[in-house]
Design brief:
CATH class: Alpha Beta
Number of domains: 1
Distance between the termini: 37 Å
CATH architecture: 3-Layer(aba) Sandwich
Structural class: alpha/beta
Strand order of the largest sheet: 1-2-3-5-4
Shape: globular
Order of helices and strands: HEHEHEHEEH
Strand content: 15-25%
Helix content: 25-40%
C-alpha cells in the first residue's frame, strides 16, 4: 500500500488516521518492529517530523505503539494525555492477532475508560498493526487546555 493516495483515489494511512497537514504528531513506544510505512505516511502528511518521547510540546495526535508485556496500559495512556491538545487524538497501535505482542481488544476496552478515554473507531490498514482511536470525552475536553 502506498503512503500517498494511489491512482484509484485511496486515502493514505495517515489520512485514515485523520492526520492533516500542519498537525504535530507525538510518537511513543517506538521500537524496531513498528510499521515504517505508517510512520513515513504520517511524516509526509503532517509535513513535520514525529515529536520524540521526551518532548513537552503540545500535540494534535499521539501514536502509541503498544505490545503485550510493555507494562501498564492505563498508566501509559494517562501519560499519553499529558502533551495532547484538548481536541487531540490518541492512536493506540497494537500488533494484529497472531503477531508477537498482540494485545486483546478486551484489554484496550478496559484500559481506555480507566484512563479517561473513549474508543471511537479502529483501523487495520497497516501490515502488522491495528489501531484504536481514543479520545477524551467531550466534557473533559473543555476542561483541558
Amino acid at each position: 500500500m502506498s503512503t500517498t493516495a494511489d491512482h484509484a483515489g485511496q486515502r493514505s494511512l495517515a489520512e485514515r488516521l485523520g492526520v492533516q497537514p500542519g498537525m504535530v504528531v507525538h510518537e511513543l513506544g517506538y521500537d524496531d518492529d513498528v510499521d515504517e510505512e505508517l510512520r513515513r505516511s504520517v511524516v509526509e502528511r503532517s509535513g513535520g517530523e514525529l515529536v520524540a518521547e521526551a518532548s513537552d510540546e503540545i500535540v494534535d495526535v499521539v501514536l502509541l505503539w503498544w505490545r503485550e508485556g510493555d507494562g501498564d496500559l492505563v498508566d501509559t495512556l494517562v501519560d499519553a494525555l499529558t502533551p495532547l491538545a484538548a481536541n487531540g487524538v490518541v492512536w493506540l497501535l497494537t500488533p494484529k492477532a497472531g503477531r508477537e505482542g498482540h494485545v486483546e481488544p478486551s484489554d484496550i476496552s478496559e484500559a481506555a475508560p480507566t484512563a479517561g478515554l473513549n474508543q471511537t473507531s479502529s483501523i487495520s490498514d497497516a501490515a502488522d498493526w491495528s489501531g484504536a482511536r481514543l479520545v477524551a470525552p467531550r466534557s473533559s475536553r473543555s476542561a483541558r487546555r
